[in-house]
Write a structure and sequence with these properties.
It is built from 9 helices and 12 strands. With 294 residues, it is an alpha/beta fold. It has a domain of 202 residues: NAD(P)-binding Rossmann-like Domain (Rossmann fold).
Length: 294
């Protein structure tokens, strides 16, 4: 689509940071939380009116899934109210919106990958706040794409990859949940796909799409693959870990419930835009390479 001016939120987040470096062929005005605090609707309105973007990309979100259970007002302000205000203001100036959402909108009991038409049933405050944000954008009726992704990680930011590598350098043994299924999705894979999507999208087709790396795994198998690739690439510092043990969700209780299955079927994105992301293992390899350069 014709995007002369893109307003990008959350540039210090995993996806925002990856997008800022990947969308270098576009004029991108990237704003951090410090520059645009999404808890202030009037600031959102003024910023959009002043900057007059023709496309807004909103990866900023309240992503502390467990904390959201006791901090629901803030999660709702950022994940539900802010997207609504962004959509309303974008609509007024004729701009389009690309927004990110989550696999945690699903209950997780389906035995095969979820499609975009499957019923949602968020099991957490975070999942509910994100779903309500989707609905608010849809209700405004502007040209929009809502991209549900999952298990986001990367060389930049705080995430599962970084946590596993930190713990694997400190401990002999790790215990990782093996009964939650999903697709780890690299922030760079998302950003590369988004650059393609912006080029492909004419703004006429609006809706919700799944966008994850291909394939699926468990947190346990993901952790094993992280350690395997790290050792194979001979990265430093050397890891101390010698054993990764599978545990169940019940062994590792968290304040927020996670879906047992949050694998997303990405075929609609491929069908409508010809875009497919690489396998989660390839996504991991690319992030490992970035990590090795840091
Ligand atoms: N992370 C995942 O595993 C995951 C899974 C599925 C879907 N998603 C969705 O994917 C999108 C991108 O996630 P991500 O992993 O890039 O998240 P992230 O790394 O946690 O980044 C979120 C960004 O939002 C910013 N933010 C938080 N509160 C804000 C506020 N009041 N005003 C302005 N900015 C604010 C944060 O700012 P600071 O840097 O200042 O904190 C941060 O830069 C989100 O919509 C998320 O819901 C993520």
């Amino acid at each position: 689509m014709k995007s002369n001016r893109i307003l990008l939120t959350g540039v210090n987040g995993q996806v925002g940071h990856a997008l800022l470096s990947t969308l270098s062929n576009f004029t991108v005005i990237g704003l951090s939380r410090h520059e645009l605090d999404l808890t202030h609707p009037e600031a959102i309105r003024q910023t959009i009116r002043q900057l007059k973007p023709d496309l807004i990309i909103n990866p900023a979100a309240y992503t502390a899934v467990d904390q959201a259970e006791t901090d629901s007002a803030l999660a709702i302000a950022i994940n539900t109210v802010a997207p609504k205000v962004i959509a309303e203001e974008a609509s007024k100036i004729g701009a389009a919106l690309i927004h990110f959402s989550t696999d945690y909108v699903y209950e997780g009991t389906k035995l095969s990958p979820y499609t975009e038409v499957d019923a949602v049933n968020p099991q957490s405050v975070y999942g509910r706040s994100k779903y309500d944000g989707e609905m608010a954008i849809t209700a405004v009726g502007l040209p929009h794409l809502i991209l549900r992704t999952s298990w986001v990680y990367g060389a930049y930011g705080h995430n599962f990859l970084k946590t596993i590598l930190r713990l694997a350098a400190q401990r002999d043994q790790l215990h990782i949940v093996a009964d939650q299924h999903g697709a780890p999705t690299s922030s760079m894979s998302i950003a590369i796909a988004l650059a393609q999507l912006i080029a492909e999208w004419d703004g006429k087709r609006s809706g919700i799409y799944h966008l994850t790396n291909a394939g699926s795994t468990t947190w346990y198998a993901f952790a094993r693959e992280i350690v395997r690739q790290y050792i194979a690439m001979q990265l430093q510092p050397a890891l101390k870990v010698t054993e990764i043990k599978a545990i169940t969700t019940a062994d590792y209780p968290t304040p927020a419930s996670r879906p047992a299955n949050s694998c997303l079927d990405n075929r609609q994105l491929a069908q409508d835009f010809g875009i497919s992301l690489p396998s989660w293992q390839e996504g991991l390899q690319a992030e490992m390479k970035l990590l090795s350069l840091q």
